[in-house]
Amino acid sequence: MVGGESAGGGLTAALCMYAHDHHSVDIAFQMPLYPMIDCYDTDSSRDNHEKIWNTRKNHAAWKLYLKGLEGKEIPDYASPSRRKDYSGLPPCYTFVGDLDPFREETIAYVKALNDAGVEAKVDVYENWYHAYDIYHPKKEDSKDAAEKLMEHFKAAFENSKLTSL
């Protein structure tokens, strides 16, 4: 199983794609939380001025990350939203805030997985900005999100070929 938050969520998606494409590791489940997976603006990342992460920071990060690829086709391992075929990827659970710049790309990723026949689910939390759960771990909604994540993790573990944690 593999998981990560924000840019780590993007790397989670990319690693799942890479492992599938290269038949290297059989990943049983992915948990890309509020993942950074689309190098282009979406409705939620365009003109976003929320706390923690916003349009300005997002543009700067992608510019640094994709340095040297200006004017070239962006590989889907760099920006997983560029992928055309999501079939064969591991099941997925994620969550994102409704104020998060990555809301639309997260929802689109889960939809693309579902459209490809991959079991995937996203929960969208109201009034959450980027990484809200990390900044407010003791709030009830953050505890709820952590509990749901663990429920999905445990279910995936029980359905996997793994024998112990």
Summed up:
With 165 residues, the protein is an alpha/beta fold. Helices cover 39% and strands 12% of the residues.
Helix and strand composition category = alpha/beta
CATH top level?
A: Alpha Beta
Number of strands: 4
**What do the pLDDT scores average to?**
95
Helix count from the secondary structure assignment:
5
Characterization of this structure:
It is a single chain. The chain has 165 residues and is an alpha/beta fold. The protein has a single domain (2-159), classed as Rossmann fold, CATH 3.40.50. The protein has five helices and four strands, in the order βαβαβαβαα. The protein has helices at 7-22, 55-65, 103-115, 132-135, 140-159, and strands spanning 2-5, 30-33, 92-97, 120-125. It has a two-stranded parallel sheet with strand order 1-2. The longest helix is centred in the last third of the chain and has 20 residues, at 140-159. It is globular, with a radius of gyration of 16 Å. The mean pLDDT is 95.
Supply the key terms.
165 residues; alpha/beta; Rossmann fold; two-stranded parallel ribbon; 5 helices; globular
What's the helix and strand layout?
Layout: E1 2-5, H1 7-22, E2 30-33, H2 55-65, E3 92-97, H3 103-115, E4 120-125, H4 132-135, H5 140-159
Parallel strand pairs: 1-2, 3-4
